[in-house]
Structure formats: structure tokens, C-alpha cells
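Box S2. Input/output pair 1.
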Amino acid sequence: MPNRVHPIAAIALLLVLFIISLFIGVSSLTLSNLLEPDKLEIFLVSRVPRSFAVLLTGVSMAVAGLVMQMVVHNRFVEPTTAGTAQGAALGLLAAILLFPSAPVMGKMLIGSAGAIISMLVFLRMARHIPPSDPLLLPLVGLIYGGVLGALVTFIAYEKDLLQVVEIWFNGDFSGILRGRYELLWAGGVAAIMLYLLADRLTIVGMGEQMSHALGIPYRQLVLLSMTMVAVMTALVVITVGMVPFIGLVVPNIVRRFVGDNIRHALPWVAWTGMVMLLICDILARTIRFPYEIPVSVIFGVIGAVIFLYLLIRPIRQKN
């Protein structure tokens, strides 16, 4: 794909999808009626924030998935299939129950702490799983995430907070307005920071012994990168909700064409994440127009099919 798509064509495609996203919705907006005050207000308060939220969510989850796969040395894991997103939801639920008057930033920090703790537990489990079977780790991650998700649902049911939890578990951009998505920009900043660490993370992906041999502080880099991944995941969960399979599907597609060098792969991973999520969000708004389908449903169906293909393909090749 990157070998076949010119960067200018890639940027043009992204701009076209972004413009389409700006002008699709229940309220009919055109370039001419944007001069009307009420139409302009809808455009600035709802459409622009929503389109930027889609871009930032696509970047955050796709980059988080790529970095997580490099650190864990497994192509079948990502934050939503390794318990990280569910850990963020558990942290957010704890913040609501224990500190109900805390500001959004404080709840986000507690959610990030939950994501970090759940990720550290997953990394601990990953060290005891034999690398000879690459399918075992994602299956363990799915079970682990399912247990955490069930715990969140049980606590929410007991405390009458199921409606709040449902928002976190179902990624949806329909509630995005100006003033309710700006935290996602921090995820974009984290993606840039990870790009600055790209060369070191590529060496980390070669293993702990290779990293030590080349003078790279393996454990510190793993902790730093996983902290960024946890923060990006928590930001998406608290703002949009979980959108499964982005971090799994996008890196696997891009690495087929670019390879394992993060510096080369990361910009294309970010671009592919934005393009795929924009397409899914446009479909979510048009399939049952004027009603919307949560974007997590659209991407979940597409991602699940690709995920099953990625799981089954090695088995068929082995046989």
C-alpha cells in the first residue's frame, strides 16, 4: 500500500474524506448556507469537532496498537484485546464512585492509572506464555479483557451506572461537541512523541538482549511507551468509547508493506487509522440515515473479519 500510494494522493484522499465528514449529517450543510449564523454554529460546534475527533481517535488507537505489538512481540494484540481499554473503564468507574466531584482531568488520570495497571498485569502474563505459539497470547488477552469487562459491568449494575458504562464500551461520535473532545489532542501529542522514539522502539522490538547489546534502556523504554499507550487508550475511552480492532488491523495491514521499522511504518499506520475510521464513521451516518449506528459496530464487523483471517491464515499455511 505505501509503495503504491503516493504521499500527495494519500493526503488528498484524507482531505476528501475529512470534507465529506464535515458535510454529512441530519442538518443539511453546504458551502453556501454556512453564511447563515445557525448553520455556521452547527458546523463549528458539532461537525468540525466530530471530524477532528475521528482523526485523533484513528491516530491514537492505530499507533497504540503498533507500539504494543512491537513491545509484546506479537502481532495479534492491541489495547482493546489485551485488557487495557477495559482497565481504563475500570479506573474511570472507580473515579466516578470514589471521587464523584473530581474534574475531568482527574478522572482521566485515574482512568489512565487503571489502564497502566491492567497493561502491566497483561505484560506480566505475557512473559510466562511460550512465544512458540503466537495465537495463545491474544486469546489470553481476550479472556483477560473479558473478565475485566465483566467486572466493570457487574459493579456498574450494582451502582446503577450501566448507561455510563455502555457509552465507554460502544464507541460513538454522535455526542462529540466543541468542549468535549479536546482531550484527544493529547493523544496526538503522544503519537508524535512515540514517533520521536521510533528508532529506539524498533530496537526494543528486537528483544531485551539486543537492546542491552546496543545500549538501549529496555525496561525504561517499555514502561514509557506503555504509559503513553495507556494514556492514549484512556483518553479515547473517556471521550469516544471503545472502538475495537483499530490497533490490531491497521498495524498488520501496514507492516505487510513497510516492515517492522517503526519510523517508516508509524506515519502510514496513523494515515490508515484516520482513513479507515473516517470511512466507517461516514458509513455509520449514512446506512440508516437520518439515524446513526455506533462506529464501533461498523469497525467491529470489519475488524472481526480481518482478525479471524489473521488468526486462521497461519494455521492454514502450517497445514
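Box S3. Input/output pair 2.
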Amino acid sequence: MNIFCLLKQTFDTEERIVIQNGRVSDDGVKYVINPYDEYAVEEALQLREKHGGSVTVVSVGPARAAEALRSALAMGADEAVLISDERIESDEAGISYLLQAYLSKQAYDVILGGNFSVDTGGGQVAVRLAAGLDIPHAASITSLDIDGTAASVKRDAEGDTESLELTLPALFTAQQGLNEPRYPSLPNIMKAKKKPFQTLSLDDLGVDAAAIAPLTKRLSLSLPPERGAGQLIKGTPAEQAARLVELLRTEAKAI
């Protein structure tokens, strides 16, 4: 089974966000594998252990994204591919286009990715990629069973659970609860340094920079307003409810 896993490098979720000159400052921050992508890597490894084959992790990003790919190799992935080029200044549409350009030339049975990225909150890359490759797609999966070319999944449907049957090749995105990602062992960290690692440019993929020009534009960037002090509403249940409705109308303007 040929398994490809999409991976993005993001800020550590514990990092404090600082905006300077209209952009998020990355001075001194710690980068990690996007947590949802980590579930995808773990699921890919478990599929390989059960069905055989290989796991290739793929990322589009700057040179530092190699660190995240090395971490995935240390978890147990077999190969890594970094699509990196100074001309890449794209959004999720362009990223998915680049991944499509690479994966359309590969033999794959399963493609896995995270449900969304924790830095931008975006969840379009995998969906767009599945559409571009013209293969079935199931998002936010919490379980995955494969028998031959048949895949049975359960997915989180806004708090409910939905069961689906798909035919491989197919793309799946991982939701929290799918598995518990393993920690890389020291021997595997050392082995990761010798595993195949390929870096591809736009020229290698045969993609013109104009083809991945952003389709979206950020108009502004700001931190959420600081949370104010709470209010304690006293009185009988009826008085509390009436006061709450009044506050929602006059202060929060939520109703």
C-alpha cells in the first residue's frame, strides 16, 4: 500500500501570538508538526504496519519545514518530500495545486492529512486536492478500516458520527480521537537522518509561478479583543434570566 501523508509545519500551540508591522512575528517561536497532521502520520504508520507498503510525508513550505518532515521520519515514515521555492507565495488553492502536480505523478492508494491547520484555521488544501485528483474524500475521520480497495470510515459530523464507505484510492483528513501519535525514539531519530529526503522546486514539478498566484487576499490582521471581567447575576432564576436577556441585548448586542 502506497500511503502519502500531507504535512504542514505550524507554530507550537503554546506560542504567544505577536503582530508586528501587520504580520505575525516568528521571532524565536517554536515550530511543530500541525497537530492534526500528526494524527494523519500516526494513522499512515498504523496502516503500513497492518497492510505493508510505504509512507511518504509531503510538505509545501520554506526550508525550515524540513524539521517537521524529519520529525515525521523519526516517527517512522519511510521517505519525505519538501516542495520549496522562493517563488511560492500562495494560498490554499495554490498549495493544493502544487500537491496535485506532485501526487498526480505518483502511485498512491491512500492520502492522509490533518482536518485543518491550527495556524490559519484553514481546511481547504485536502478538499481541493481530492477534487483536483478526482478521488473520493472523507473529512474529520475518527476511525479508518481498509479491506482490499474498500475503506470504511467514521467521521465527526458536527458532534454526531457518520459512517461512510469509500473505494481506494481516496483521501482522508484526521480528526482528534483517530489515534494517539507515537513519540519518536532516539534510535529512530538517528535513523531519520539517513532516510530518503527529496526537495523539489517549481521547475521540478513543471509548475509556472503564475499558476499558483493567490486567489485570496488578507485585508487586515488583528488580535481578538481582550476579554473583559465577568458579571455575577443575582436574584431568582427568573430575575437572572431576565437580566441575562437584557445584557445580551444592551451590552453584548447578541440578540
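Caption for Box S3: The longest helix spans residues 35-51. The mean pLDDT is 92.
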